[in-house]
Amino acid sequence: MASLETKERTVLELRLQEYSTEEIAEKVHRSPRTIRRILERLQARLEERLG
User: Fold this and answer.
1) Residues 42, 45, 48, CA angle at the centre, nearest 5°?
2) Of 9, 7, 43, nearest to 28 (Cα)?
3) Residue 41 DSSP symbol
4) N or C: which end of the chain has fewer CB within 10 A?
């Protein structure tokens, strides 16, 4: 997690706390679409690292 940007880390931490995309968007003042994109990027990076 050290290489994550602050906003990515925040989104990931909220997702791990089981907040919905809409709830995360509201908390970080971004659109749900932006949150979905961040989560998709995080998932792609994780899949890349795990092979």
Assistant:
1) 150
2) 7
3) H
4) C
| Ramachandran sector of residue 18 (left: φ over 0; alpha: ψ -120 to 50; beta: rest) | left
Q: Which amino acid is at 38?
A: I
Q: What is the largest distance, in Å, between two alpha-carbon atoms of the chain? A: 33
Task: Spell out the domain ranges in the chain.
Answer: 6-50
Instruction: Give the integer Cα–Cα distance in Å for 27 and 13.
Output: 12
**23 is written with which tokens?**
């709830």
State the DSSP string of 4-37: S-HHHHHHHHHHHTT--HHHHHHHHT--HHHHHH
